[in-house]
Amino acid sequence: MLQDVADLNLSDPYGKVGVPKQLVIKKDSSAIPGAVNKAGLRLPIVAKPLVAKSHELSLAYDEFSLQKLEPPLVLQEFINHGGVLFKVYIVGEAIKVVRRFSLPDVSKRELSKNAGVYRFPRVSCAAASADEADLDPCVAELPPRPLLERLARELRRRLGLRLFNLDIIREHGTQDHYYVIDINYFPGYGKMPEYEHIFTDFLLSLAQSK
């Protein structure tokens, strides 16, 4: 599904939306360093289970540690984003955005001093909301509404989905460069504000269109 975002190559006056460089590894962990170099992925690298049996993420700091990862998995270039992601819920035509704490930024100094694989609970599933936190305005500012509406409209058409959500980050140090790092179809909506009213309106509109 992330490939559809990459193919979309969305860019307009409100911003640019892409996906981080990524690579699917189905087997043979010993071949990961070579595959990463060939694909041009830069360290650190986020590793996600290809089969969603676990909500755990791993962050690999050095090339040698890549061999410790357990396929099948998706490798994704880590992009500094101020430690905040935007979870965008889409229910039919409705869009709701909430802030969530994410993995912290990794400086060049930290990258040179650290080694190994660090494991984290899946940040997009974390209960900790960042909506009430005292954040730097440059980090906290939500993506522009028109940009999200266009992205949601295009993905509804390309994916054939009406119920899904997106995890979006803004590259730290930029005002308008966004990346979609995850897409979930028919996600849980319990933590989406006003979900009862939005979901009821969606179901009613489906019934009325029949």
Automatic annotation (TrEMBL):
Q: State which Enzyme Commission number(s) the record gives.
A: 2.7.1.159
Q: Which residues form a coiled coil?
A: none
Entry superkingdom: Eukaryota
The UniProt keywords, alphabetically, are: ATP-binding, Kinase, Magnesium, Metal-binding, Nucleotide-binding, Transferase
Q: Has the keyword Ubl conjugation been applied to this entry?
A: no
| Gene Ontology MF, one | inositol-3,4,5,6-tetrakisphosphate 1-kinase activity
Name the cofactor(s). Answer: Mg(2+)
Q: How does it assemble?
A: Monomer.
Report the protein name in the record. Answer: inositol-1,3,4-trisphosphate 5/6-kinase
What would be the name of the gene that encodes this protein? Answer: LOC105159068
